[in-house]
Design a protein that fits this description.
About 75% of the residues lie in helices and about 5% in strands. The chain is mainly α. The chain has one domain. It has a two-stranded antiparallel ribbon. It is elongated.
């Protein structure tokens, strides 16, 4: 059991690393969790947590046969370098999915706000080229 906890901790660290790398992609940046313009922004803590959860769940799901074998024999579960690199990738992917869902919510809110205002070509161009929160800010500034 002790080896399992060490292995799971190593996988969690790799998932956190993958999630942390994702913090710097897009416009989320390194900030703490907060509400902004009525939208929950989980910050780097939330993104890293999702990376950890994704990596640990994926690793545990693929190791179920090894756990059963380890219970019936004296052999333990062995952690391979390929599993650690996979944990980084899964952590990155899980965090990316999480951020994408948040950005979708922001862009939907942007569309609702912009649709309720009169046409503005300059604002439309800014919305089209801005980050999700930049687009929301541009929609809020529309006359």
């Amino acid at each position: 059991m002790h080896d399992l906890m060490i292995d799971l901790s190593a996988v969690a660290v790799c998932g956190a690393l993958g999630g942390f790398v994702n913090v710097f992609i897009g416009d989320s940046g390194l900030h703490l969790p907060k509400f902004e313009d009525g939208i929950w922004r989980p910050g780097y803590i939330g993104v890293v947590f999702v990376g950890v959860a994704a990596a640990c769940c994926a690793w545990l799901a693929t190791q179920s046969a090894s756990f059963v074998d380890a219970m019936h024999s004296s052999s333990g579960v062995t952690l391979h370098l390929s599993e650690l690199s996979t944990a980084i990738i899964v952590g990155f992917g899980g965090a990316r999915w999480f951020k994408s869902e948040g950005e979708t919510t922001i862009l939907r809110k942007t569309a609702v706000i912009a649709a309720g205002k009169s046409a503005d070509k300059e604002a439309a161009a800014e919305i089209a080229s801005a980050s999700p929160f930049g687009a929301l800010a541009a929609a809020n500034r529309m006359p």
